[in-house]
Amino acid sequence: MGWLLKLWGRVARWRVAAGPVTQAAGPPVGEAAVADIRFRAQICCHTGAVASVHVAAPFLPGGDDTPLRLALRQWLRWRKDGIEPPPLAFDLPAAMAQSPDLVMPLLWEIDRQEFPTDRLIFAAPLDAGPVEDQWGLLLLARFGCVIEAARFDVSDLGALRQLGPGMARLRLPHHALRDCHTRPGGGRMLLSLLAMAQRFGLQTLACDVASRDQHGFLAQLGCDIVQGEAVAPVLDASGMAQFLHAMTEVQRPRIGIKRPAA
Predict the structure, then answer these.
(1) Host H or E run for residue 104
(2) Residues 6+ apart with CB under 8 A from 172
(3) pTM (2 decimals)?
């Protein structure tokens, strides 16, 4: 991937020199600003395993790569310590999802740390527009990253399916999740959305799950992945390492030992 990134880098630097990018650069951000980076597990409804780890650190305007840089280092430390961590999930602002120029620093950092791109998930917000116009997000997908969208338009679902199996997933909208387990008709709305996602072969994620009842309701309907206070807390790097280790122990199959004959 290195030679292709260098080519993209030359193109991006030429474009920046030729004119402004889609959003004005914000103030410089040092690592100290997000050094206390936090994580939250996203849990698979079907197996109970950790499907991915959400990085709770915002990207600031101007192509900031600090949250990614710190999270990649921490993921590699977890693996060095004997934990096989799941993919990392990041929320991009709309401007980055739309701009190849603003995501280029992310690709450079991924390449510099020789990080496996298939262990990264980048999410675009609802206001990022149609998937086909999210050039930054699609550039990340082109280099092998998984992308997450929040739009259920048929054209958007078709664009995500074309990326290939396992390369995209859908975030269920907040208005459909709010009190879904108690609101009349809430289940029917979610079932229709989940059916659309299944039709296009896309996994679904429900964020901000606030209660065990809501978690169970979503699992029964067929939601794939959940995140929220009722599922797993926000943890620092050390706490997340302990959480992943504990979940690995729970998921590890136990070897049966035959009892001696009486």
Answers:
(1) helix 100-112
(2) 190, 193, 204, 205, 206, 207, 223
(3) 0.83
